[in-house]
Amino acid sequence: MMRALWTAATGMSAQNLNVDVIANNLANVNTTGFKRGRANFQDLMYQQIKSPGADASSAGTQVPTGIQVGLGVKAAGVENIFLEGSLKPTGNPLDFAIEGRGFFQIQMPDGELAYTRAGAFSLDSQGQIVTSDGNILQPAINIPADAVSISVGADGTVSVLQPGGVSSVLGQIQLADFSNPAGLELLGSSLYRPSNSSGEAILGTPGSNGIGSIGQNMLEMSNVNIVEEMVNLIAGQRAYEMNSKAIKASDEMLHTANNIRA
Description:
This protein is of the alpha+beta class and 262 residues long. The protein contains two helices and 20 strands. The protein has helices spanning 2-27, 226-258, and strands at 37-43, 46-50, 67-70, 73-80, 87-89, 96-99, 103-107, 113-116, 122-123, 129-130, 136-138, 149-152, 157-162, 166-172, 175-177, 185-188, 191-193, 202-204, 213-216, 218-220. Strands 7, 8, 11, 15 and 18 form a five-stranded antiparallel sheet that branches. Strands 12-13-14 form a three-stranded antiparallel sheet, with no helix packed on it. A two-stranded antiparallel sheet has the order 1-4. Strand 9 (122-123) and strand 10 form a beta hairpin. It is elongated.
C-alpha cells in the first residue's frame, strides 16, 4: 500500500509537468516561429519480487512471467517538435519565412551567435537588419537610407532599388541547420543555442543542400495545433485525477489496516 502511494505520486508529478508543457504551447499559439514542446516519459525501475524464468519446482519447471512491480514514472525529456508552421503573408518586406529546414543567424550582445525561425525583422538607425530586440541578423547587411524597395530572393540574395532606378545587390542571407534541432538549447525570445546534442551549426545557401528557401513578405506561424493541445490537456487532467484517486484508495486501505483489532 505504501508502494502504491509513492507510485501514484510520481504519476501526479509527471502529469503536472505534462500540463506545464501544454500550457506553454497554448500560451505561444500566436508566437512567430514557435515550435511546440512534448513531454516524454519513461517507467521507473521495477521491483523484482520473482524473476521471470525462475525455478518453480525441483522438477525443473520455470515461472513463465514472474512478479515485477513497477515503481512509477519519470520525465525523460521535453522535446521540441520542429514541424514547419503555416506561412502567413504580411506584405512587410522585412518579414522573412524559412520554407523547409534552417535557422536565421542572430548576433547577440555578447558576440555569440543564436539561431531563430522567427523572421520578423526591422531596420535599426544604421540600416542594419535586426530582430525586435535589436540583435543583428548575420551576415550583417546594411540597407541604404535612400532605398526605395528591398527585395530578398529565395536564395537569400538581398537587393535594393534606389532613386534613379539603380538596383544594387547588398549581400546574401546564409541559413544554419543542425543534425538534431530538437537538441538545441532554448534561450527565450524565440532564440536557440547549440548544445552537444544538437551538434554544431551547418551553414549553407538557402535552397541548397537540404536547407530551406526564404520567402519574403511572410512569417512562419507557431506550429501549435489548438485542438490537439486541448485534447492532450484533458487527457493530462484525467490522468492526474486517476493518480490522485489511487493515492486516496491506498490511504483508505492503510486506514483499514491500521484499524484492524486482534
